[in-house]
Design a protein that fits this description.
mainly alpha; single chain; 9 helices; 2 domains
């Protein structure tokens, strides 16, 4: 059994890896985020924002890092974030994030996206428990070249999406899910 402190550092390291992947995706540079102890702990604030605002960490970085980089007096080094961890998780950055989320999702659509994603996760975990740890086996639809016409491909794709939607609606309509009041319950 891991201690709570070890779990926090594991989470902080995972956030650092997400930042590395974000830098690689945007700057096409290999990156290794090396944050000192206190800065590494500060990165946990990104996870807090992810839970609070229902936006994933890469999207948080998409929303605030360009603005923060623009405010810097010199361009970022290749393979680096371009801003300090303090600036990334400070109060001004949180205000920028709130404004950017309101601009991107004026009607609060990110909460619906989060709710659907969390519901899918829970249903998949429940299915895994029922099947003794085996994941849900969904047969992927073959590509458009495997069908004679595009209409056949579209019809097969609609059938598969219809099944998934029916599974989701069935899971969402179960009353026992709505009776459990806990923080972050996506079924309420």
């Amino acid at each position: 059994m891991r201690s709570a402190v070890a779990e926090l550092w594991r989470e902080a390291n995972a956030i650092g890896r997400q930042i590395d992947r974000w830098i690689e995706r945007h700057d096409s540079q290999r990156s290794y985020t090396v944050a000192a102890g206190l800065d590494q702990a500060r990165l946990l604030r990104l996870r807090t924002w992810e839970l609070r605002y229902h936006v994933r960490i890469p999207e948080i970085l998409d929303l605030i890092v360009p603005s923060l980089r623009h405010q810097m007096s010199r361009p970022p080094r290749p393979g680096s974030l371009g801003v300090s961890v303090r600036a990334l998780v400070g109060h001004a950055a949180e205000d920028m994030l709130k404004d950017a989320i309101l601009r991107r999702y004026p009607a609060g659509e990110q909460q619906g996206i989060w709710r659907t994603r969390e519901q899918d996760k829970q249903v998949a975990l429940e299915y895994k428990e029922e099947c003794d740890g085996l994941g849900q086996q969904r047969k992927p639809v073959a590509g458009p070249m495997a069908f004679e016409t595009v209409a056949q491909f579209a019809q097969q794709y609609q059938v598969q999406l219809g099944r998934r939607l029916a599974d989701h609606r069935k899971a969402a309509s179960e009353v026992w899910r709505k009776r459990k009041h806990y923080r972050g319950n996506p079924w309420l």
